Amino acid sequence: MAQYRSASGSAAEDLFIDLFSDAFGAEKAGYLYSQYHFYDIYQNSRYADFVLENGARRIAIEIDDETSHNKSLVASNKFYDDLLKQNSMVHLGWDVYRWAVRQMQIQPEAVKDELRVFLGSHPQFKEIEDYLPQQRGKALDGTNLELKKHQVEALRSLQEMRDHSETIALLYHATGTGKTVTAVMDAKNCGRRVLFLAHTQELINQAADTFRKLWPSVTVGRYMESMKQPNAHVVCGSVQSIALHLDSFKDDAFDYLIVDEAHHAAADTYQKVLSYFKPAFTLGLTATPERTDDNKVILEIFKNTAHKLDIQTAVEIGELVPIRCIRIHTNIDLTKVRFNSVQYNIRDLESKIYVPERNRLIVDTWLQYVRNKRTVVFCASVKHAEQIAALFCEVGIKAASVSGGMKQSKRKEFQDKFISREIQVLCACDLLNEGWDCPEIEVLFMARPTMSKVLYTQQLGRGMRLFEGKESLMVFDFVDNASQYNMPQSLHRLFKLKDYKPGQLAVAPSAKKAAEADLYAKGEKPEALIDWPVDATDYELVDIFNWQEEAEGMISQMEFVRRVDVQTETIERYVREGKLVPDLVVPMSEHRTFKYFKEDSLEKYAEQYGWTLIDDSNRKDMFMDMIRQMDMSYSYKPVLVKAILLYADDKGRVKLDDIVSYFRSYYEGRRTAGLVVEKKNSIFAKGGYTDKEAERNILANPFKRFEDMQMLRHTKTLGIVQIDESVWKRLTKEELAEIERICDEKIETYYSRLK
C-alpha cells in the first residue's frame, strides 16, 4: 500500500470505506479502525490498513496496488517484509483479507459481494478491543473513593476473590492510576512465582523495574528476544517469546499470572499461553476506555472485574490530573472536506490544513500561551509533524517530529531529550498512543482533526499522569470550521460539555470545579490561569451534536427494507415522494446521503401502510407463509425452491449454475416425456434458450419476489443464491419436508389447471 499512498494519500482507503458503507451501511463503517497499530513477531511496529471485530473474529483488511505482492515487480526486501506483516497478523489469530486498488476501481460490485460473503450479509460488528465492554460482576464504583484508596480497594477485592476460590479477574484502571503497582503488590502478597505477560519491550521493561523496586527480595528476570531468564522468581516476558518456547516451562511453573493490556487476550497467541499454564490466580490489566456494545469476549476470559476506574472518575478522585482546555478557532473551513464514518478524506484534509497560516497559528499559540512548558503536538501526518517542528526551530524553540515509522532507538532518544527539557516540543504522528510514560507532559496541542473517539482518547491519555507541581493538563483544541456532520473530536465533545470558558477546568473533582465556577461568576481568573492571557468573561456554547450517536439505535434505509414485507423500489419511491420522512439524514458529500429512521417511525409507517414487520424471530415464519400461500403465474417458484433444497450447502448457499441446470433438466424432462412444458410465451416452452437466458429468466421471475422479501439473496459476482441465514438455520427437517411436499402439490395443481 505504501507505493499507492505516497502518490495518492489514502484515496484507496477512502474508496474501500465507500464500498464497505454501500455493502453494510455508513453506520457500520464506523467499526472500521483505520491504520491499526500492532507489532510483528520481531516486535517491529506495524500498521494494518483496517481492523475490525465481527463477533469473536478479529479481521485485518489490506488494500494494495497491483505490484505489492508480485515478487517480479517489487524489491525482494519489500516483498518478504509484506509476507512477514501478513504472517504476523495470522499469528495473532486474525483473519486477513486483501483487495487491490484497481479491483475496487473497476469491479466495485464484486468487492461488495465478496465483503458480504467473507463478513456475512448481516454482520455483528463491534468496537475493536481498544474499548472494553461494559463491566459486570464485581466492579466497584470509583466515584466514592479517596486518593489512592482505589488501590487498597482493588487489593482487598482481589483477596476476597481468592478467599472465595475464584482464580481469575480483571483490573480496569485508567492510564496513570498505578494498575501495575497494584498488580505487583497483589502478587507480592501472594508471595509465589509470577509470570508477567506483555506485548512490547517497553511494557516488559517497565514492569520489571516496578517489580524490582517494590519486591526487592526476589529475583526478577526478562524473557524476550535474546534475553532468556526463565528461572527468576518473577519472569516478565513477551507473549510472543513465551508462546514460542512453552516447552521450556512446566505448566505449573507459575502460581500467579499477570496479563498486561488484557484487551489483547482474545488473540490466539495469548490464548495459547493462557491455556497452557495452570496458575493459582490470573489477573488481567487494562487501561482502555469502556465501550458500549454487548461484546463479552474479554469477560469470558477474565470472569470478574476486581476494580473499575475510567478516565473521568480517575480525575474526579485525584488519580489523574484535572484537565483545562483552550479552544483556538482557526479560519480553516472543513465543511467541504469529504468524510465517512471513519475519517476525513486525507487529500481534502491535506489541502485545507497543510497551510502556512494554520501551522503558524499553532506555533504562535504556543509562544503566546505556554512558552517553556513541555508540549506534545499531535499532527495529521509525518509531513505535518515535520512542518510544524521546523517552524518551532525557526523561532529558536527546540522541537522534533516523531512517528511510528521511526527506529525505536531514535524515538527513545527524542523522548529522553523531551523529559530532560533538551527538547521542548514533540510533534507526533501515529505515535505515543500506547506504551510511552511521560508524566512531565504539561500541554497537549490537538492539531490533528480527527473524527475518531478512540484516537482522541488515546492522545489525551498521554498527558494525564500526575507529576509534582503539575496542577492540571492544558489541552489546546484547534477548532476548524466544520458542518454538524463532519465535526472533529474535541475535549468538549468527548466529555459532552456544552459550556466553555477559556482555560476553565473541564474535567476535575467536583469541589474544584465548583470553587472555580464561583471565581468565574465574579469575573476573576483562577490562580492557575494567571500566566495565560485569557479573559475570565469569555464564554462559548459548544455544539456537541454527533451524528453517529444520533444514529445509534436507529435503522438505516437499507435495514428498513429488510424489516418490512415490501419491495426495495417501494421504499425508495416513498422516500422520494415524502411518504417516508427519515428522522436523520447524513450528507456524506454533495451527492451522497444516508438516511435513518427511529424504531417507532418504522412501526408507525408499517401500521400506516399496512406492512408486516419482519425480524429474525419471525422471518422463518414469513418464509413458510410465503411457501404455503405461493401465488403462481408460472411454475417457476416451486421449481426454484426445489432446486435450492436439492443443492443448498450447510449455509443455505446454491450455485446459480446448479439452479439453471435444474431448471433445464426439469423442463426438458417434461418435453421429452411429452408433457406440457409451460405457457406458450415461456422461454422454457419455446425451447432453444441459452443458459444465460434461463439465468436472466430465473432472476427476474421467480427470484425477484423472494429477494424483495429479503428471503433470498443473489451474490452476483460469485454466482451464488443464498437463503437468508436467519431462515435457513431455523428450518427443521419436518419443515423442509413440508416445503418439498407443498412445492410438489403446487406444481401438480398448476399443470392440472394449465391443461
Strand order of the largest sheet: 9-8-10-7-11-12-6-13
What is the CATH level 1 assignment of the largest domain?
Alpha Beta
Domain module count? 5
What's the helix count?
32
What is the overall silhouette?
globular
The mean pLDDT is 81
Question: What distance lies between the first and last C-alpha atoms, to the nearest angstrom?
Answer: 64 Å
The biggest beta sheet is recorded as: 8 strands, mixed
Radius of gyration: 30 Å
CATH homologous group name of the largest domain = P-loop containing nucleotide triphosphate hydrolases
CATH fold name of the largest domain: Rossmann fold
Structural class: alpha/beta
Task: Provide a compact summary of the structure.
Residues 362-508 form the Helicase C-terminal domain. The chain is α/β, with parallel strands linked by helices and 755 residues long.
Key words describing this protein structure:
single chain, alpha/beta, Rossmann fold, 5 domains, eight-stranded mixed β-sheet, 32 helices, Helicase_Restrict-Modif_Enz, DEAD/DEAH box helicase, Helicase/UvrB_N
Report on the architecture of this protein.
The model is unreliable at 1-9, 129-147, 289-299 and 303-308 (pLDDT under 50). Helix 8 (179-190) packs across helix 9 and helix 26 (636-647) runs antiparallel to helix 32 (733-754). The protein is 42% helix and 19% strand. Strand 1 and strand 2 form a beta hairpin. It has an eight-stranded mixed sheet with strand order 9-8-10-7-11-12-6-13. It is globular. It folds into five domains: 2-126; 142-316, Rossmann fold; 323-547, P-loop containing nucleotide triphosphate hydrolases (Rossmann fold); 553-609; 619-754. Keywords: ATP-binding, Helicase, Hydrolase, Nucleotide-binding.
